[in-house]
Amino acid sequence: MGLFGQDDPEAVEVAGRQLECRVCGHTEFWHRRAQLNTAVMSFFDFDWANATADCQVCARCGYVHWFLLP
Ligand SMILES: [Zn+2]
Questions:
Q1: Which residues contact 17 (CB under 8 A, 6 or more apart)?
Q2: 53 CA distance to ligand 1 centroid (A)?
Q3: CA distances from 49 to 37, 52, 64, 65, 68 (A)
Q4: Whole-prediction pTM value?
Q5: What is the pLDDT of residue 36?
Q6: Could you tell me the residue range of the domain that residue 51 belongs to?
């Protein structure tokens, strides 16, 4: 039982390297996809709308690592 249901957290590789939580150093994450809406994009001052983000949520501390997908 995890933060988002019954998924088990998993190790994640990004750009050929194992992802480690930048806060606590943990190496298991829950994976979620998020569609970024216009309000969010405006908040970040991006001028391209409706991008998709990969979210890796640290299974220990809950820190969300965002990866914007092209
Ligand atoms: Zn963490």
A1: none
A2: 19
A3: 7, 9, 21, 20, 12
A4: 0.72
A5: 73
A6: 1-60
The reply to whether 42 falls in a domain is: yes
- Position 67 in a domain: no
4-15, pLDDT tens digit by residue? Answer: 555 789 999 999
Integer CA distances (angstroms), 42 to 17, 20, 36, 52, 64, in order: 31, 29, 10, 14, 19
The total of structural domains in the chain comes to 1
User: What number is the average pLDDT over the span 13-37?
Assistant: 92
Q: How many helices (H) and strands (E) does the chain have?
A: 1, 5
Residue 32 · residue 55 · CB < 8 Å = yes
Q: What is the CA radius of gyration of the chain?
A: 13
How close is the Cα of 47 to the center of ligand 1, in Å?
30
Distance (angstroms) between ligand 1 centre and the Cα of 64 equals 8
